């Protein structure tokens, strides 16, 4: 559906000192992400036709070059007439498999890496510094004394070394932490301070803080089960900012109750939303949040930047970034 015009328009993208020029193409974009996204798209590619879908049920059957969004109540119907779906988020485990049939799907991989990595560092620090327990509401028994921990000298274990894992490692290493990681592919770490470990069996007994940063796939479902919790270093702090399905929550409860897991900081659980009265809300060793670790004043801007980069690539005939492999699940 890309229509070529006669003129050329320079973009601000540069490579080895030469400007790329993109022909005046007319891309039709179904946009599920609001008028702010529409304005940014028009600023980057003025020739684009942007059809922004509001809260009302849209008119289905509109042919377009790309659908930007993918997580709304009408996403599957909107995607039906496009060859390319650009997901506005990273996770694809909640995306219907029909979305992948006969089309290319890209995602916003890495868009939330910085805010999530900051959340993980905050979680580890609050665990070691016993916050908010150390804040006072009345005179304590002892003044000028507390038994506090430190990140310095401790070992962080990363399950996954994609964009989020890398961002966490880059922030943890300056605290003096030893950083170990496992990853699916046998390739070197992009962060010099990270030591690659062969398997999760080797990783679990070695780490003081264990962070889950892998996608939800058939291979990672219940990755931490009763056998895994039996192998962890006693007193470990578990942080899950990935997906709730990675953890067998019944096995986690046993490990929390016997102290093998000292604390579980869970930004993701199974199911979501977690129903009222669930034990995770009230367990004294659980710190629970509502899948908000990605939150940032500029979080959506990063996802939009990735989409616009791919729009420019599509217009200039370059390969798209962050294409999802439905078989692998990311």
Any overview of this molecule?
- The protein is α/β, with parallel strands linked by helices.
- It folds into 2 domains: 3-110 and 298-316, Rossmann fold; 113-288, Rossmann fold (3-Layer(aba) Sandwich).
- It contains 9 helices and 14 strands.
- Strands 10-9-8-11-12-13-14 form a 7-stranded parallel β-sheet. A 5-stranded parallel β-sheet has the order 4-3-5-6-7. Strands 1-2 form a two-stranded antiparallel sheet.
- Helix 3 crosses helix 4 (163-172).
- The radius of gyration is 23 Å and the shape is elongated.
- The two termini are 27 Å apart.
Entry keywords:
330 residues, Rossmann fold, 7-stranded parallel beta sheet, 5-stranded parallel beta sheet, 9 helices, elongated
Helical proportion, percent range: 25-40%
Q: Find the CATH topology of the largest domain.
A: Rossmann fold
Which regions contain 5 or more consecutive residues with pLDDT less than 50? 2-23
Q: What is the beta-strand fraction?
A: 15-25%
Number of domains: 2
From the alpha carbons, calculate the radius of gyration and give it in angstroms: 23 Å
Assembly form of the protein? single chain
Tell me, briefly, the overall form: elongated
User: What is the straight-line distance between the termini?
Assistant: 27 Å
CATH architecture of the largest domain: 3-Layer(aba) Sandwich
SS summary, helix count: 9
